[in-house]
Amino acid sequence: MHEAELASLRELVLNWSHMPTPSAPSQSAEDYLERIHELIEEKGYARVVDIASSLNVKQASVTSMVQKLGDLGYLNYEKYRGLVLTEKGKEVACGVQKRHETLSRFFSLFGLNDETQRQDIEGIEHHLSPETVEVLSDLARFFEEDPETLKTFVRSRKRSNR
Fold it and tell me: What are phi and psi of 117, to 5 degrees?
């Protein structure tokens, strides 16, 4: 192997975990899978019309995404039952849901209003690594288990914002 080929191979090996994979869902696909999972939990089924309404998008957009998600193996359409997540789809949806819940739990500790939390979570939830979400979860648990430290932190913020 030539030096250039070795360097290229070395870079590929070092960066393989950061490369997108064809089967990894996009942010939009994650949002759809999360919403489909929520609808199934709430109502027992998920229909295109319900997804479109809850995500505030056109039914044609939902149909297109559902077809793509089906082709990628994240869901199936079953007559009379509507959309059914595969194990792969459930895994992604539950991961997104857990990430969302962790961020909500974390931000709630600091008294951020619901709308600010919602906007911030929607803005960052797809951009955080699993390691970062785990740290935030641990930090939330730390503050929950030690409310005096949380109070001290909140007071220190108020003093510094004067």
Answer: -60, -50
Q: How many CB atoms lie within 10 A of CB 65?
A: 21
Architecture in CATH of 27-86 = Orthogonal Bundle (1.10)
- Is there a contact between 47 and 54 (Cβ–Cβ < 8 Å)? no
Please state, in angstroms and rounded to a whole number, the distance separating the CA atoms of residues 102 and 130: 11
| CATH value of 92-160 in 1.25.40.70, 1.10.60.10, 2.70.40.10, 1.20.1290.10 | 1.10.60.10
pLDDT in tens, 12-63: 444 433 344 455 788 899 999 999 999 999 998 899 999 999 999 999 999 9
Structure pTM? 0.73
Backbone phi, then psi, for 138, in 5-degree steps?
-65, -40
d(CA 68, CA 63): 9
